[in-house]
Amino acid sequence: MNDPGSTVPAATRRLAPDAAGLGEAAALLRAGGLVAFPTETVYGLGADATDARAVARIFAAKDRPRFNPLIAHLPDTAAALAEGLFDDPARRLAEAFWPGPLTLVVPARPGTGVCDLARAGLPSVALRVPAHPLARDLLDRVGGPVAAPSANRSGRVSPTRADHVLADLAGRIAAVLDGGDTPVGVESTVVACLGGTPRLLRPGGTTRAALRAVLGFEPDGPAADDADRPAGPGLLASHYAPRARVRLDIVSLEPGEALLLFGAGQPEGHARACATLNLSPAGDPAEAASRLFGVLRDLDASGAATIAVVPIPADGLGEAIRDRLARAAAPR
Ligand code: TXA
Ligand code: MG
Prior knowledge:
Number of domains: 2
CATH topology of the largest domain: DHBP synthase
Order of helices and strands: EHEEHEHHEEHEHEEEHEEEHEH
Bound molecules: threonylcarbamoyladenylate, magnesium ion
Largest sheet: 10 strands, mixed
């Protein structure tokens, strides 16, 4: 069972972040296999974006309920420009934030290599040039666009280390390239540039303030906490869900709950928490984002029925953190 294109690999290999591991990962991807790899945001589940059969394996491995469009990852801006049509705002955003945690949805260039299935049949294409050195090296070696959603089972918490990937996908994918913890910890910001005012589809690792500074105006788009009105295909309300129920903006803790803290404050009743973790004792949104998904997994492992979360301010990366927590708390 060493056929890399096989839907169910016998075992998932953990590849070292060295030249040999990168070479293996690129070869598996070129042969139509699925390889998870680190980006600066979260681990992606990669497949050759030009190969519809390989892309179909992503949906099978993740148990994705439907064919949501995927982000095509490119090694540099020039490669991304070859796949899409960039208007002036798109060009400025690409120049300012690539490589980095920003995804641009733009009209697909006629003849783009990104297959219809990866685009879910849409006339647009989502493009991203990640900043992680391993991701860039891997994309260089593959030599074409790599489609990659977050490397978790559909609807689950996104992975920020190789062990998270294996917990969800072992036996379902060919390999994971182990690059340790991902530094940003929440997914890329998704901005659609399809003519007119750019639209923020998903808050993420590039802050609204940073976008505004480059554009000179506020992008259209969802307010923080607007979790039940999906702004883009695949932006389901319930998402990033741990097993436990999630309760937000608590002022007091109920018995038996696990407690998720931010900053120095403690809610009433904190002493009765069955488990307590702090995203950032110093109240730093960047530290909190980098720890968010790992801490959710750890609190889930405590066995508590409910994870209670103290209020987290919406400024900077706080907007993305609040967005992910609102989805984790949404009715399932
Ligand atoms: O940080 C990230 O963005 C990670 C890493 C691996 O790059 N990837 C990621 O992919 O989060 P995924 O598939 O979990 O989320 C991609 C989002 C989805 O919400 C999808 O609906 C949206 O981007 N998207 C993709 N193509 C689109 C399109 N043509 N129009 C509108 N939204 C699109
Ligand atoms: Mg995801």
